[in-house]
Specification:
- It is built from four helices and nine strands; from the N terminus they run βαββαβββαβαββ.
- It is of the alpha+beta class.
- It has one domain.
- The chain has a three-stranded antiparallel sheet. Strands 2-3 form a two-stranded antiparallel sheet. The protein has a two-stranded antiparallel ribbon with strand order 4-5.
- The protein is globular, with a radius of gyration of 22 Å.
- It starts with a strand and ends in a 25-residue tail after the last strand.
- The C terminus is likely disordered.
- InterPro entries: Endo/exonu/phosph_ase_sf.
Length: 166
């Protein structure tokens, strides 16, 4: 069954091709919500939640491994045109240290064939004040619809009333 999920997941995914944040410039609250500290004291984005859905980035193969079967529409667009940088989905000036891609459109494998990767857009507002701290994210889904209607089927003739067993 084709499924698409969209929303503010408040988390980014692993991979150097995604917008990055300078966690040293981010405040404590931002780090506590969206980052993790390594034993050496450095900070990186906490990508576990989104990586669980789409798989963890493998730097050797430049692909995602594992995940529970979803594909990021942003990455489908990037794979189709890797020379176009993926934009953050949070507007400029909102987050100290830079903004991340945290608003996602995710498609399962059955839906992937219906996604037009070239249509993916992060809409950057033209001017301040921004209507939201987040940017609108869109993509086109294409479904094949039959051009002719099927012959109507006759009503089902059931010889046994509901609830009875033979």
């Amino acid at each position: 069954m084709p499924v698409i999920v969209g929303g503010d997941l408040n988390s980014t995914a692993s991979g150097p091709h995604l917008p990055q944040r300078d966690w040293a410039a981010a405040g404590y609250r931002a780090r506590a919500q969206k980052a993790r500290q390594h034993p050496d004291g450095t900070w990186t984005a906490d990508t576990d939640a989104v990586d669980h859905l789409i798989g963890r980035w493998n730097p050797d193969t430049h692909r995602r491994d594992d995940g529970c079967g979803f594909h990021a529409v942003a990455e489908l667009a990037w794979a189709a045109n890797p020379h176009t940088a993926l934009l953050p989905t949070v507007n400029d000036g909102i987050n100290a240290g830079g903004s991340l891609l945290i608003d996602w459109l995710l498609a399962n494998t059955a839906m992937r064939t219906h996604v037009d990767p070239g249509s993916y857009r992060v809409h950057v507002p033209a001017q301040r004040p921004y209507p939201s701290d987040h940017r609108l994210v869109t993509a086109t889904l294409a479904f094949n619809t039959p051009t002719t209607t099927a012959e109507p089927r006759p009503p089902r003739q059931d010889s046994s009333p509901l609830g009875s067993s033979r």
